[in-house]
Design brief:
The protein is of the alpha/beta class. The protein has 10 helices and 17 strands. The protein is about 25% helix and about 25% strand. About 45% of the residues are buried.
């Protein structure tokens, strides 16, 4: 079904654990500094599963989900511009940062906007209960509030491929900043989803000696990981933990790896990931997006005596989107392989099945 020119369509989560409804909303007139964008691709993120089930404490109801978006300018308000101050015009292809920050708090003033105490994220913690309604990317249109970082995108790239840069790419870029990879490092990545694949790309682009991956079982994700440059993959379904540890230790001459990156939402990987680090190594976790159980830690043996650095990674900012876009546009890595399934909004339940049953790698709505 198609709406009239003055209406948008959007998927709405009205109750946790229940299917979305497909609703219509009036198109708002963009105010000062705002941009009404037509969404051409909306990525379905693994964290959206937690949101729909009510596991993300930030999420209000009702809400239009979707924090990953790519599109084009539909209409712009007074003084709305690109990040670089460039002008906007209807039909211009754009990509936008997923969050809004206050610019005034302790963290914003120290250039850590990803920690902003007032941070708002499209599709995660902005309700659609009141006008202007259109606050998530699972929709034909979204109203980008004043202060949103907006970039003109290269039209030669498929919007559904570019959309992975807006969350998976930015998160991996943020994680990469903490790894210290400059050339010759050995890297072990847990997981083989989009964030992991971006992590492989960032590591190899920065000169890592090799990247190995630990994931559950063989499948499309592991094949794409190989295409991105992972030189070896350990499968949980085929290797017990002791065998994985022995394999990594053997391949590093008993030293352990320089960097471990856990992109999964499984905190039980932590002890293993830390144990496989060499002295002076770095553990980075961009994978946990919701509260989890406590993990035992031998502070002296696991961390202090090995002089390890442990970094959590929370969200990202506009600088990370620039990093991700630059890497994607370099053409060095086959990012087009990430997009395995494309759906219309009307097909939302099938899209959700593909995502939750892990049949796809990157699942995208093309509204």
């Amino acid at each position: 079904m198609r709406t009239g020119k003055d209406n948008a369509r959007a998927l709405v989560l009205n109750e946790f654990g229940k299917p979305f409804s497909l609703d219509e909303f009036p198109l708002p007139e963009p105010g000062y500094g705002e941009v009404l964008a037509r969404v051409t691709a909306a990525g379905i993120c693994g964290s959206d599963i937690h949101e729909r089930e009510g596991h993300d404490p930030r999420t209000p109801l009702p809400i239009i989900p979707g924090h990953e978006g790519v599109g084009e300018v539909f209409a712009e308000g007074d003084d709305a511009t690109l990040c670089d101050g460039g002008s906007l015009e209807p039909g211009m292809p754009i990509v936008w940062e997923r969050s809004l920050t206050c610019g005034k708090c302790y963290f914003c003033l120290r250039n850590k906007r990803f920690l902003c105490v007032e941070r708002k994220v499209y599709g995660i913690n902005i309700s659609c209960a009141e006008p202007p309604y259109l606050s998530g990317n699972y929709a034909t249109h979204i109203l980008l509030r004043a202060g949103t970082s907006i970039y003109k995108r290269n039209e030669k790239f498929d919007p559904s491929v570019l959309v992975s840069a807006t969350c998976s790419g930015t998160t991996a870029a943020h994680a990469h900043e903490y790894t210290g990879i400059k050339g010759g490092e050995t890297v072990l990545i847990y997981g083989s989803g989009p964030v992991a694949l971006w992590g492989i790309a960032f590591a190899l682009d920065s000169g890592a000696k090799w990247v190995k991956v630990v994931t559950r079982s063989p499948g499309p994700k592991s094949e794409i990981a190989r295409a991105f440059g992972a030189d070896e993959i350990f499968f949980r379904s085929e290797n017990q933990t002791d065998e994985i540890i022995a394999g990594v230790v053997e391949r590093t001459g008993g030293m352990g790896v320089d960097v471990t990156i856990d992109t999964t939402a499984d905190p039980s990987n932590f002890r293993e990931a830390v144990s496989l680090l060499c002295r002076g190594g770095v553990y980075v976790n961009p994978g946990l997006a919701i509260p989890s159980q406590d993990i035992p830690l031998n502070l002296f043996g696991d961390v202090v005596n090995k002089n390890l650095r442990i970094n959590g990674v929370w969200a990202s900012d506009a600088s990370h989107l620039r990093m991700a876009m630059k890497l994607l546009e370099s053409g060095r890595f086959p990012f087009e392989k990430l997009v395995t399934h494309r759906f219309q909004l009307e097909e939302h339940e099938e899209a959700w099945r593909v995502l939750t049953e892990k049949e796809g790698v990157k699942v995208v709505f093309e509204p």
